[in-house]
Amino acid sequence: MSTSSLEKIGAELRRGIVQIAALALLREPMHGYQLVKVLAEAGLETEEGTLYPLLRRLETQGLLRSEWDTAGARPRKYYTLSDEGRAALPLLESSWRQINTAVGTILASGVTAGVEEAKA
Amino acid sequence: MTNRGVQDWLEEAGGAMGGDATGRRDALLELESAIYEKVEERTATGESEEQAVEIVLRDMGDPVSIGHAFVPQSPIIAPERTRSFYLYTCALFAVHFVLVISATMAGQPLTLGPLQIRPIADSTPWNLFARAAEVLVFDAGVMLVAFMFRSRLGRLVRLRVAEERAGTNKRRHFETAAFLALVLVVANFLRDNLLALYLLDGDGEGTLQVPLLGSGFTNNLILFNVWMLLAMAREVWFGFKGETRGAMLLDVVARSVGIFCLLRIVATRKLVDLTAAKHVLGTDADTVGSLLNSAFSLIALVTAALIAIALVKRLFRLFA
Fold it and tell me: What pTM was computed for the model?
């Protein structure tokens, strides 16, 4: 498999994860660039071209609400969880944990099976 | 700080964005704010503005790709409804074209509620083909508007039931229930006005309202009402409680009643009765009536078959 294909799979995988991570972080109001930095510090490097449209989509879906802050030197759009988003977050968290456990089990069993096969 | 390079980049991204002007302005302002914030961070460390802008814009990526990523994805017909769109368009085309043929055979336009069906002036194969194409384009357009309206209306209504707030979408069931209620009202109360033919009378000056519906409709009306009410109850139940066993059982009963009702319509082949129009249409009334009944029977049969397939699937899910 080529490097670009691997990168594409990685990007797709990250995109799904970034959604839940962004929702979880936006329990507190943050602007887009701030969120990019927090995600990067947490180890989830995210491009602006992915994050900003994602935030707008989540807002359209009613999971986030936004507000412009024009008090500072530069206007900033702050995002935070809406009531719907707050209600949905525990469900998404539970789905995430389930997926995480399932994938972890599959990957571990795959490794074990590989080791067993090698031994045989 | 305003930089020419940044403005060009934003202009390019905005050009690729599409959507409404307010949303575009909002998105561009957000991007602009982020870009300048990053530039300011870099210039604070001693980089020149020109250098900082270059690096930041390179990191941001291709403006056209970013602009495209902002385009709201709202197709006129949602992918899950494409099949329904084709099915309804084919059904509408079949009925419409049979009516065109009927009008041609009767030698005068047929008026069905607000619609007037013109006859084909000259029945050459080319004219027939051209008219079929015209009818198909018209019907596809009508269905497109209907589906677009349905999606837009759905978004406007946004019934916020508990499940939807929790992240699952049950709104579609309430929309379907509302649609079924509309069908029920038309069938029971507006049928004489909407489901009738308005023909030109003998001397072509006045119009004659001819009841379109025959015994195949009136004899099955109670059964049809039961079917619609059960289907509405099922949709409301699905909407509030999701796919519970009770709702699925109700669904099975509703579908069974529907199949029975449709098969009775097929068996009687008397959905349309043009006896009253005989003095205008003459002997053609029988042919037109027969053609219409054949078309409606075919539609009823296909619909019954589709419901039967769905019923088998539902039973399998219920008992498997």
Answer: 0.46
Cβ <8 Å between B166 and A91: yes
> What are the residues facing B110 on neighbouring strands?
B117
Which is nearest to A64 in space by CA: A27, A18, A21, A36?
A27
Judge whether B83 is closer than 8 Å to chain A, CB to CB: no
Q: Hey, what are B82's tokens? A: 């494409």
Tokens representing residue A95 in the block: 């789905």
Q: Verify whether the Cβ–Cβ distance A88 to B65 is below 8 Å.
A: no
- Per this entry, what is the length of chain A? 120
Q: How far apart are the first and last CA of chain A?
A: 28
A39 three-class SS: helix
Of A33, A47, A75, the CB nearest to B38: A33
Inter-axis angle of helices B21-44 and B4-15, nearest 10: 150
Tens digits of residue pLDDT in B37-60: 889 888 888 888 888 999 988 888
Q: Which two tokens stand for residue B163?
A: 């499940």
Tell me which chain A residues have a C-beta less than 8 angstroms from the C-beta of B66. Answer: 48-49, 52-53
Q: How far apart are CA B274 and CA B130, in angstroms?
A: 28
DSSP 8-state symbol, B275: G
Only one residue has tokens 């995430």, namely A96
SS3 B168: coil
- The pLDDT assigned to A112 comes to 63
Exposure of A56 by Cβ count < 10 A (0-12 exposed, 13-18 middle, 19+ buried)?
buried
Q: Residues B154, B162: contact at Cβ < 8 Å?
A: no
Count chain A–chain B contacts defined by CB atoms under 8 A: 59
